[in-house]
Amino acid sequence: MMDGLAPRAPPPRVRLLPPAVADRIAAGEVVERPAAVVKELVENALDAGASRIAVTLEGGGVDRITVEDDGAGMAADDLALAVARHATSKLADERLIEIATLGFRGEALPSIGAVARLEIVSRRQGSAEGHAIAVTGGAKGEVRPAPASPGTRVTVRELFFAAPARLKFLKSPRAETEACLAALRRLALAHPAVAFHATVDGREALALPPADRAARIGRLLGPEFASHAIPVEAERGPMRLAGLAGPPSLTRATVTEQHVVVNGRPVTDRLLRTALRVAYAEAIERGRHPVAALFLDLPFALVDVNVHPAKTEVRFRDTDAVRGFVIAALREAIGAARSAPVASAALRFTPPPAPRLGLAEAAMPLPLPAAPQARPVPTAPAPPADHPLGAARAQLLATYIVAETSDGAVVLVDQHAAAERLAHEALRAARAAGPVPAQSLLVPAVVELDVASAERILARQDELAAFGLVVEPFGEGAVLVRTVPAPLGGGDPAPLLRDIADELAEGEESTALGLRLDAVLARMACHGSIRAGRRLTQAEMDALLRAIETTPGSGTCSHGRPTWIRLAKADLEKLFGRR
């Protein structure tokens, strides 16, 4: 023994793993959760030329997943090879370049069969006879004749029964179901000419007939996006970008509504999301994210899809060229739309005169008629000594309050950031005392959302009611709002609901909202604050200063940015070389 430690045991001898164990380990790269199974099976159906795909889910996809298509189908010999590892019909050669199909690794079906009970029934188009094969925990059965319609039906039961440790890492059935439907929607967005249908625990969850690209985008991203979206059409050399981008006035709290399709493949690509952020950087509020559905097509040889087992990431041969092309195309489309008189008139907003804190007046007001850069406040008495933030003296750029203190300091206040913190603390206090008081809307508001967002909101009706937000279903993709949190006042609840839906999607877990309480409150607070760009009266500015002085933690907003900055008299003198 050395230093009180027992000697290490000698390492075990190197040995080959049994094929079944090796298959289960390899399956972990492809089959992470039920949504991965849905993605792989639907991609196979699309590669088979299906025009109709039906998905059935039970128990969050753990109990059963069935994917049925009317594609090319498989003969008996093909069916036997389909469940063998590294067998594929999707690669013409071994070079792994110019990959034109969604799947190509030849691992999905054997990986699924290694950890579940898998059955495939298929019949080739034009053939009179169908065949079936079963794989149970990696054990392959014999191909047998079976009645079948042209196409393929794949059924997966008891997912992870052969790898029970994986079950512990799954979320609730509701969260896993939503992840499956999200994967299905992404593929449906990428392939609008294909009909998609989904049934969850016996109820219809998705019904998408064949459509053109714009109609499919509108159906999945919601009517508001569809009615205000900016068409994007651009070409540069062999690259082509098309689709729809949201106007700067339509933003989200997260990037969940940014959809990018590369050569028919939905991807989550940092380079392309960075291009989106840069393109909108000068047009939207910091911390907000644009909404878009973009389709990038380029020669297959210029993009590597063999980067990740789940095939959700890609690598471009010339990243700078792709990034520059996307940024330029989006900026041109946004600029053209913002300069159009019709678009400007549709988005113009006149702020209400009421001084109280209310729900967000507008995501981003359009430029108003020319006004002075600084609006002086009429002559006021000297700043009182008992107010650390002093008295308001001017409003700069319709965003910042300039105040003077009794000791000669200058205070700059970001009116939106400060009001956001005040609303956040008011909501926290109300929530700590019990359910947040609700304020009834004089006329219940109907909020149009995309189908997925509406489902996420309605699945939390009881929990949202405790926040003072009472909602009801109102048809597909629509929510009826009866009350809003009283600390926020009245106003349009639509931006608030969209941000809460984003928060739920980002959190993904379907357990109590209390686990993400502060994040939800922060979303609400952002919509209950005075917006940048709103002109304030002297009384409003002074009231905001007094509220900041008496609110704990008011030095920063809910996102950690400063709400006010103090420049002492000495600081000003140093700036001007007076000391």
What is the strand and helix layout of this fold?
Blueprint: H1 19-30, H2 34-47, E1 52-58, E2 64-69, H3 76-82, H4 108-115, E3 117-123, E4 130-136, E5 139-140, E6 144-146, E7 151-157, H5 173-190, E8 195-200, E9 203-208, H6 213-221, H7 223-228, E10 230-236, E11 239-245, E12 251-252, E13 258-262, E14 265-267, H8 270-280, E15 289-290, E16 292-297, E17 303-304, E18 315-316, H9 319-338, H10 341-347, E19 374-376, E20 391-396, E21 400-404, E22 410-414, H11 415-432, E23 438-448, H12 451-458, H13 461-465, E24 470-473, E25 478-485, H14 494-507, H15 517-527, H16 538-550, E26 564-567, H17 569-575
Parallel strand pairs: 1-8, 13-16
Antiparallel strand pairs: 1-2, 2-7, 3-4, 3-7, 4-5, 4-6, 8-9, 10-11, 11-16, 12-15, 13-14, 17-18, 19-20, 20-21, 21-22, 22-26, 23-25, 24-25
Helix pairs in contact: 1-4, 2-5, 5-6, 8-9, 11-15, 11-16, 12-14, 14-15
Can you characterise this structure?
The structure is a single chain. The protein folds into three domains: about 190 residues, Histidine kinase-like ATPase, C-terminal domain (Heat Shock Protein 90, 2-Layer Sandwich); about 130 residues, Ribosomal Protein S5, domain 2 (2-Layer Sandwich); about 190 residues, 2-Layer Sandwich (Ribosomal Protein S8, Chain: A, domain 1), CATH 3.30.1370.100. The chain contains 17 helices and 26 strands. The termini are far apart. About 5% of the residues have low confidence.
